[in-house]
Amino acid sequence: MHSPLHDEHVALGATLTPFAGWLMPLRYSSDLAEHQAVRQAAGLFDLSHMGEIRVSGPQAGAALDHALVGNLTAVGVGRARYTMLCAEDGSVIDDLVVYRTGEEDFLVVANASNAAVVLAELAQRSTRFEVTIGDESEHTALVAVQGPRAQEIVTSITAPDDVDAVARLKYYTGLEATVAGIDALVARTGYTGEDGYELFVPATEATTLWRALLKAGEPHGLVPAGLSARDSLRLEAGMPLYGNELDRTTTPHDAGLGRVVKLDKAEADGAPLPFVGRAALEARDASQPSRVLVGLQGLGRRAARHGFPVVRSTDRLDLVVGQVTSGAPSPTLGFPIAMAYVTPEVSGVGTELAVDVRGRAEPVRVVGLPFYRRPQ
């Protein structure tokens, strides 16, 4: 599938790559330049491959409380919540961001690779609720501006009546505003560890918005950025990627995200709310972990990559204690970084381990996540 911005990417000379059934820009210039632009100024991302699912009706909140692990009825209008769709066994089907756009209206944003599954699961789990589920993905474009100059850029093309409200948005909030003459849902969310905005607009208006943002951002150092920079940025920020840190063998607790599971959700009479996966997640919450997601700082020059074994020491490649889920050189920090699942006894910060990088033991040290926090 092609993004509504496909022709813009081609015109900019992007290197395109297949991703979750879409042909998306991997990079426009260099991975390093795009990564550094986001950290120092701003980057412009096309996220139109993500899935947008509308859940509306008098029982929309209740339906989502049943279907997801979060407490969505507690989310105020104009706010967003990071949550997950889990199976009955507690494993993660997808991680999601849910925006409450009205008292009876929610927008669920799913990963591209899981959008169809999320749509089907929400429909199946909502049959006893007074709710309407609609797939808006085909008709929606999603563009992100990320970086320390994001606010200046976005507000420079925002309608005068909306500028103050857009500038005042807090993290994980959103509102309807006119940007570049287009009605948009503007959210202060992102996946880079930087300040920024994500803008949902009709697919037919995507090109107008994209070009307006590029023009407005040029004097501020904004550059278009592809999937490669997006991945290195989210890795530095310690943000999980579905298919790497999260999958159908993983519970939220395994990934250190047990906080998103709201076991205190209750019925009107105070009884525990029986959401999908509750029993398994209660048991997991009360048990000791068999593996822990940690950050690894490379002490050498070679970067660990997804799937590489983590071993107990540099002189014993057979003593496997875990597996790398994501890894790359860190452009911001100047050394290799990785996330990995390891056994609990070697998960303490400061523990020195090694990664088997194609038959060679590369020394690493366990560090806290995230690797990078933006200056306040």
TrEMBL record:
Transmembrane segments: none
Domain Aminomethyltransferase C-terminal: 291-372
Catalysed conversion reaction: N(6)-[(R)-S(8)-aminomethyldihydrolipoyl]-L-lysyl-[protein] + (6S)-5,6,7,8-tetrahydrofolate = N(6)-[(R)-dihydrolipoyl]-L-lysyl-[protein] + (6R)-5,10-methylene-5,6,7,8-tetrahydrofolate + NH4(+)
A GO cellular component annotation in the UniProt record: glycine cleavage complex
Top EC class for this record: transferase
Domain GCVT N-terminal: 5-265
Alphabetically ordered keywords of this record: Aminotransferase, Methyltransferase, Transferase
List of residues binding substrate: E198
Family: Belongs to the GcvT family.
Protein name: Aminomethyltransferase
